């Protein structure tokens, strides 16, 4: 709600006002305070705060839109996404229209996704791959863009919200590390190989920056060179995957963060994000 003299307020309208949950109201208040006053983002970690980037956001959401349309017609569709990513989509209504049995759906999904992984160049050593999915996730992660805000057909958004359609995006950790290294950053993939799911707060990559300062000589013949390390956790990588950032925007944002040397857990916010999301 917007008022001429008062700050904007977020009001949840429910059929039964008694069903309002305190935890949900707390997240709403935290989100408002984060945007208006620089407070911590929703969640239990007070070190997570917005960090404004004076950079434009460019995405490949057009590829997601096209893939979802294909899945709605064909049931299953997969394609590569620039930036060492592979996208898999499926739609229950499309599967029903095609008359796919469970066995046919499973076979078609595996074949389509394997082909997309190969085209993306990440189909070899998948023990170094990681993925994120739309299934049963957005409601439990307040830092994700809600599917209702994606620039997709409202029907497709509703299917994603209700899990009648789903999106999976996979990438290779070492491939992303090389992308940052080619941009001049000292990036290292630290997540051990394996097929286990990413854990909340898990560090997957570290980007180091050595300060352009003279080394300090310490007693005992030791030398200290000041440095700064940016740790990339699951949520940051998840955003690269599920929000379909273009590699150039992603790399530029990381460079901005490492140069800013902001303590805590900064959450990058591009200057034109309000133009991207509905």
Task: Describe this structure as you would to a colleague.
With 278 residues, the protein is an alpha+beta fold. 36% of the residues lie in helices and 23% in strands. The chain folds into 2 domains: 53-57 and 175-276, no CATH class; 61-172, no CATH class. The chain has 9 helices and 11 strands. The strands form 4 sheets. Strands 2-3-5-4 form a 4-stranded antiparallel sheet, sandwiched between helices. The mean pLDDT is 84.
Report the structural category. alpha+beta
Number of helices: 9
- Tell me the strand order in the biggest sheet: 2-3-5-4
Helix content: 25-40%
**How many β strands by DSSP?**
11
Sheet with the most strands, sense and barrel status: 4 strands, antiparallel
Q: How much of the polypeptide forms β-strand, as a percent range? A: 15-25%
* Overall pLDDT level: 84
The secondary-structure element order is HEHEEHHEHEHEEEEEHHEH
Whole-number tally of structural domains: 2
Task: Point out poorly predicted stretches.
Answer: none
- Roughly how many Å apart are the termini? 17 Å
User: Radius of gyration in whole Å, from Cα?
Assistant: 21 Å
Shape: globular
